[in-house]
């Protein structure tokens, strides 16, 4: 997969953790001793950002072998990467590299669980993750959800059209069709997505010409009702289910007929546990 973090970002992470050298390895006099380090999975996980971890360790002064690229499913004890070089270099990069892989793999693993659950009942359903990643961690989070099999819902406000009720309050004098027509004139190449919170509202906006109806916090039963109604009213309209979707209910929403499941759940996943061993070479 393409890099998520450029070299200067990796250097900044190292500088933040080791601003003036590793005092412990220096004081113990072991910094120049030859050493080997391994990263292995303690529990099943979907690996993410192992490439960034490998590059970071390389920039710390190690030579690295990557065994599990991002997106790889690894079982307990499975190898992720190995590195060798001076003990000081391995200790310098160890914790930052481990933390990157653990956090990103947590996101990727939960993403894969949602995707697998949904596609078990609807193979063509898409899982799209929102822009509600931890601020400052968007690049890491996007690569992790891609490794898990999802796609970004919106990378930001600049490239997509998503009309919320918060927008419509400023246009109370306009009918839905007039609002959609305004968007078609302004940005004719963009898909028009409208978020709704009731079935009747979704039908109205679909009839007005919205390309996607994003159903916010609908139950699976309400999604099924909306999908059924739109088969008659606006059969080309895509229904996206959003709000509260995770591994436990993704299948129900997919079975109800949603073409897209919109979720933020992966971003709060617990980091996966990666075991690191450093020993003399």
Automatic annotation (TrEMBL):
This is Putative pyrophosphorylase ModD. Residues 22-105 form the Quinolinate phosphoribosyl transferase N-terminal domain. Keywords: Glycosyltransferase, Transferase. Residues 107-276 form the Quinolinate phosphoribosyl transferase C-terminal domain. Belongs to the NadC/ModD family. The keyword Signal does not apply. Gene3D superfamilies: Aldolase class I (3.20.20.70), Quinolinate phosphoribosyl transferase, N-terminal domain (3.90.1170.20). It holds the Pfam family QRPTase_N.
């Amino acid at each position: 997969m393409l890099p998520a973090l450029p070299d200067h970002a990796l250097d900044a992470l190292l500088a933040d953790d080791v601003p003036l050298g590793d005092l412990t390895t220096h004081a113990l006099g072991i910094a120049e001793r030859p050493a080997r380090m391994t990263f292995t999975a303690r529990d099943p996980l979907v690996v993410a950002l192992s490439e960034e971890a490998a590059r970071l360790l390389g920039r710390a002064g190690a030579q690295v072998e990557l065994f599990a690229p991002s997106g790889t499913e690894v079982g307990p004890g499975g190898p992720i990467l190995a590195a060798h070089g001076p003990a000081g270099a391995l200790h310098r990069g160890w914790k930052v590299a481990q933390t990157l892989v653990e956090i990103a793999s947590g996101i990727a693993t939960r993403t894969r669980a949602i995707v697998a659950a949904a596609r078990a009942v609807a193979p063509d359903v898409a899982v799209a993750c929102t822009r509600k990643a931890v601020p400052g961690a968007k690049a890491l989070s996007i690569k992790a959800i891609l490794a898990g099999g999802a796609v970004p819902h919106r990378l930001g406000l600049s490239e997509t059209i998503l009309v919320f009720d918060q927008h419509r309050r400023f246009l109370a004098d306009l009918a839905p069709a007039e609002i959609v027509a305004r968007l078609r004139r302004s940005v004719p190449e963009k898909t028009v997505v409208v978020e709704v919170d009731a079935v009747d509202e979704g039908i109205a906006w679909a009839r007005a010409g919205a390309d996607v109806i994003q159903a916010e916090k609908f139950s699976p039963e309400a999604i099924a009702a909306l999908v059924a109604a739109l088969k008659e009213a606006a059969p080309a309209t895509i229904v996206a289910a959003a709000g509260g979707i995770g591994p436990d209910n993704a299948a129900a929403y997919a079975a109800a007929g949603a073409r897209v499941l919109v979720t933020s759940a992966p971003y709060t996943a617990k980091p996966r546990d990666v075991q690191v061993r450093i020993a003399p070479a």
